[in-house]
Design goal:
The protein is an alpha/beta fold. It has one domain: Aldolase class I (TIM Barrel, Alpha-Beta Barrel), CATH 3.20.20. 43% of the residues lie in helices and 16% in strands. It is built from 11 helices and 8 strands. The protein has an 8-stranded parallel barrel with strand order 1-2-3-4-5-6-7-8, surrounded by 6 helices. Helix 9 links the parallel strand 7 and strand 8. It is globular, with a radius of gyration of 17 Å. Bound molecules: cytidine-5'-monophosphate. Cytidine-5'-monophosphate binds next to strand 2, strand 8 and helix 10.
Length: 236
């Protein structure tokens, strides 16, 4: 079975390094987000890729095309596997151009899950529900060439239908049965998210704050059982 877990390194650099050591070969894919990247820069990405780990660089880029294209090219040079940008066609096309010829794949983020209907209307998006806006941006994202999307476990089945079987769908907001939900409100279990069509699951605190992170990772993996996830062909 291909391991679908991506562990979110939402930690100080020293803690992140220690955690990667502890998890050893049980986890091969890590998410580096704005906090760790802002603190440590590309060095932490190089360390991870140098140790044979794959990196999901979650920077949610949104800028003029030339800037996105050039920044994406730098991420590709670092050996990053997945990079997030906002799901606007111009931004996605620029990122695709920057990633051309590399192994880097571009994930689009549609509507942030911290947004509610009132936030959308504040921005002048009226007459559409959040789900409709997610679906509109996802369709445009597919047309613009996104390799996949970040989405909640509750959106994943819909996005799988829109984006097709080859798309990479990465789902945070997953918790094993009985695990502390933290501030996540709409969660699914890892097995449910994979069954709904997720390719990868981003898991943070359930593993990173566990007394024994390796045991926590093993528990999550055993909860998934022998599930063979949809994009195993992309993992070679
Ligand atoms: O600790 P936890 O498992 O909740 O961490 C989930 C990770 O996924 C965090 O890095 C968080 O920022 C990210 N994320 C999320 N929900 C979203 C998008 C990203 O929890 N809608």
């Amino acid at each position: 079975m291909t391991n679908p877990l991506i562990v979110a390194l939402d930690l100080e650099a020293a803690e992140a390094r220690a955690l990667v050591q502890k998890l050893g070969s049980s986890i091969g894919f890590y998410k580096v987000g704005l906090e760790l990247f802002t603190a440590e820069g590309p060095a932490i990405v190089r360390e991870l890729t140098g140790a044979g780990k794959r990196v999901f660089l979650d920077l949610k880029m949104y800028d003029i095309g030339e800037t996105v294209k050039r920044a994406t090219a730098r991420a590709a040079e670092l050996g990053v596997s997945l990079l997030t940008v906002h799901a606007h066609p111009q931004v996605i096309r620029a990122a695709r151009a920057g990633a051309a010829g590399s192994q880097l794949q571009i994930l689009a983020v549609t509507v942030l899950t911290s947004f509610n209907q009132a936030d959308l209307e504040d921005l002048g998006v009226s007459g559409r529900t959040i789900s409709e806006q997610v679906e509109l941006l996802a369709s445009k994202g597919v047309e613009a060439g996104a390799d996949g999307f970040v989405c909640s476990p509750l959106e994943v089945a819909r996005l799988r239908a829109i984006a097709g079987p080859g798309a990479i769908l990465v789902t945070p907001g997953v918790r094993s049965p009985g695990a502390d939900q933290g501030d996540q409100k709409r969660v699914a279990t890892p097995a449910e998210a994979l069954a709904a069509g997720a390719s990868y699951l981003v898991i943070g605190r359930e593993i990173t704050r566990a007394a024994e992170p390796s045991a926590a990772a093993e528990r999550v993996l055993s909860g998934i059982g022998s599930f063979k996830h949809l994009n195993s062909d992309r993992d070679s």
